Amino acid sequence: MRKGLIAASLGLLAAAMIATSALARSEATATPAQLASCTNVSLGFVGPLTGPAGFLGQEQISWLRFGVQKYNRASGTRFKVVPGDTELKAPVARTVARRFVSDRKVMAVIGPSESQAVRVGGNLYEKAGLVAISGSATAVDLTKGRPYTTFFRVNPNDAIQAPQIVGFVSRNLGAKNVVVIDSQDDYSIPLASAISRGLRARNVTVSRESVSADDTDFSSIVANVGNEVNVVVFATQVASAANTLSNQLREQGKKAVVFGTDGAYSPSQFKPRLGYVSVFAPDLHFDRSARGLVREYNRYSKNRSFGAFGPATYMAGLVAMNAITKACANGQATRSEVVTFVRRTNIPSIFGGTVRFSRAGDPLPTRFSFYKVTNGTYSPVG
Amino acid sequence: MDWDKLVQLLVNGVTLGSVYALVALGFSMIYGILKLLNLAHGDVVMVGAFIGWGVIGWLGGAQDPNVAVWILIVLMLLAAMVGCGFLGVAIERFAYRPLRRAPRIAPLISALGVSFFLQNSVLLLFGADFRSYEAFDLVDVEVGISWGPLNVWIIRIIVIASAFVMMAGLWLLVTRTKLGKAMRATAFDREAAAMMGVDVDRVIVKTFFIGSALAGAAGVLVGLVFGSINHFMGFNYGLKGFTAAVVGGIGSIPGAMFGGLFIGLADALSVGYIEDFTRGRLGSAFSDLVVFLILIVFMLVRPQGIFGKPEVKKV
To answer: In this predicted complex, what is the ipTM?
Structure first.
């Protein structure tokens, strides 16, 4: 009797294991060669919809949805957007990547928005042959040496941002003594290090500080900033943090101005009395040729404020939809075909010129833009 | 020694410490009465911060408020305290009271559930964006005390002063009033207090109201002095407040006040000096290491905290 029970239990266990492995296999069946019906295609958005950088992801997905609606109306397609919230946390981003990889309707990922999310999800997308087109991930190593062959980005990387900031801070702002702050993540540490190295090479005195991404009080960091410091460069993805830092510098009577890197670009959240900010794409508010598009978006979003993150993601969405449409010319498409068509992209950009990619997956050619912020008002300075 | 820096760090530490102390008081009061770690307490701080933010918006915004700034601040504090007080009462009624006779792990899990419930409710209601009090528009950061190299923003002074007034008020309530006596009796021995005619349920409800009201006030003070608030800010303040309560001696009111100030100062001074003391090996990012190292040392050397009394059990 007892032996029979044991045998039956072992049998059940074996059956459960076989069923589980079969299920797991079927979940991961979306391969590069997988044919997809072109009538039901989704774009997976990967970015921080909640958490400290929630403003960034919300702006991006709003512009992506706007772009999809516009494209669908113009081309008679039926693209959909599936949101994937990373919460600005790498482990969550990996879970989102797994979900999209196994969803055969997802033919392209728009994002990941953050460099750390590309690092944890890039190899999953690559294995599944799923193209990922980011509108804001700037870390250099995401494309250097082509570690993820299906990853592309429409924004320039930090190899361009860091030297440009170094040049601007040392030449235009004439800084002799600078504090560089990182926010302890994969985006800000390499960027802050590259800026520090560049400034030191120009004989600028540099000190380093570090804060956590969800810190809201910098008054003790500010106490470390000497009166001789001219500029505080803050590599952050949280624009409101840059704003608080700027105000706390003023509170303690420090003369230094804050220079925020691209993550701080947000006219609604980073509005110091005097500050500077870099961004990977020009702000469309200052571009006369984009007035029509801005008006359309304002109508669509009921005047939701935006900076530079949304339009770049809109562009990434256009690249993806254009490639999928081409791949679907015969009614069915594979993920590898989509990757091939993305690689060959050559479409007009909303920022002027065309969108094309280098062999590494970076956009050609491109540069960062700088803005001066005076009493919360942005104006382009380079 | 850079004295200017030290004095500035002390001011920052006292500001932070006053907020931690208010949070720690709530932890301590509830633990004292129910022997329950109210893990949702940090999220009550967050709700208070959002109520304050709502009041600013309702009264015209920080740039152009419809009332005088001091009236606005008083209204924000009152609204947050009353709102959070009732929230605390509701939490006690629905999440903890049914579990009063259950094993001690059950209310702890319930508290975790309440914490997630509050976070996600605020996320649903207000979205994920960081919200700003725009306190820097409300009162310019250059308004305040400027004494040599030391600059203290008036809002920082208001925050420290309000926290101390509330702490003093609580102290008087606990030591000089009938309710305070009933609270102390209930904390000492719930059953004996009930036998002596104390309405224990009512005392517990009032304790939750007062503890949560202080947390609500702490939320408004955080928003005022640091500017930005978000739906998960409660975790950090809850953790630091809990640490402060443990260091001071959980269950002890003066202990919570002292613990809060101690942790606030440790936090600020470690950010300022950790790099000097470790000769550049550790940066300001590791300040939490110092704070929690203090907690571990206290647990090892004096588990009952500075003002706590060792538990004596009759056998």
So the answer is: 0.83
